[in-house]
Amino acid sequence: MSLHTYRAEGDGLPVVLLHGFPLDHRMWDDVARLLPPGHPVHAVDLPGTPGHATDLPEPSLEASADLVAEVVRAAGVSSAVIAGLSMGGYVALALLERHPELVAGLALVDTKSTADAPDARANRLRIADEAESTGSVDAVRPMATSLLGETTRTAQPEVAAEVAAWIDQQEPAGVAWSQRAMAARPDRTDVLRAFAGPVVVVVGDEDTVTPVTAAEHLVANAEGARLVVVPQSGHLSSVEQPAAVASAIAELAQAAG
Questions:
Q1: Whole-angstrom distance, CA of residue 68 vs CA of residue 66
Q2: Would you place residue 53 in the very low, low, confident or very high pLDDT band (cuts 50, 70, 90)?
Q3: Distances from the Cα of 238 to the Cα of 16, 58, 119, 131, angstroms
Q4: What's the pLDDT tens digit per position in 32-49?
Q5: Eight-state DSSP code of residue 130
Q6: 122 vs 179: CA distance, rounded Å
């Protein structure tokens, strides 16, 4: 697992970005460029991403969270705004539970705090097995379009092409590991409820994976949380509408700092 530093300098609170599945830190590139100067900005390539899909621990988001804590501390970060999209949001909540001193503010983007329903969990395990048995990412290729909102698919076909290219570069062993780790995650709503720091919940209005109702559940369980609904965006709001996501994270960093 590695830390990708977009900006090292700045006296403001650092921002740490955690990516979704089946992608890597590149899904944050546009958001990182739009975050205000003064804040160091880092992204973490989570276990299973290209170059980090061998010698993996037992699949768990707890392992991911512990490794995030390790790499950000090694970079001199003792407290940060943690922003996680989808799987990155699950890891952010695990980080909050296991390393609360690192989390000064929390941005939960197109994600949820609940565990998988049995059918969703079974589907993850099926995809993990398929990725492993075929040695390919074929099972997750359709996500290049299913993760995007209808507006993006229609008006910005180049975005779907870029996401497809990122998915094609993932490693089958990493896809399998991440799916099993997500399938095993518990409900962390109580962890969110106990957090006293500032929270922003961001969701695309066309997100069909973790829809607005999932975001409303997060807001209802986080004291003083702010809801930002991003127009014309699906599940990958950081890629589809990066300016709106960057603005929400910037406001959170100001509040947390």
A1: 5
A2: low
A3: 14, 29, 28, 26
A4: 999 999 999 999 999 989
A5: H
A6: 10
Cα–Cα dist 42/49, whole Å = 16
Identify whether the C-beta of residue 18 lies closer than 8 Å to the C-beta of residue 91: yes
CA separation for the pair 108, 151 (Å, rounded): 22
Q: Which of the 8 DSSP states describes residue 140?
A: G
pTM for the full predicted model: 0.96
Q: Which of 173, 187, 92 is nearest to 131 (CA)?
A: 173
Please, what is the end-to-end C-alpha distance for the chain in angstroms? 27
CB-CB neighbours of 58 under 10 Å: 10
Q: Rounded distance, CA 70 to CA 206, Å?
A: 35
Question: Which residue type sits at 176?
Answer: A
The DSSP 8-state label assigned to residue 76 in this structure reads T
φ, ψ at 186 (rounded to 5°) = -85, 175
Confidence of residue 52 (pLDDT cuts 50, 70, 90): confident
* Positive/negative CA dihedral, 49, 233, 92, 179: negative
Phi, psi (deg, nearest 5) at residue 38: 105, -20
Contact (CB, 8 A) for 225 and 202: no
DSSP letters, 45-101, are E-TTSTT--SS--SS-HHHHHHHHHHHHHHTT-SSEEEEEETHHHHHHHHHHHH-GG
Coil, helix or strand at residue 194: coil
Looking up tokens 């709001």 gives 237
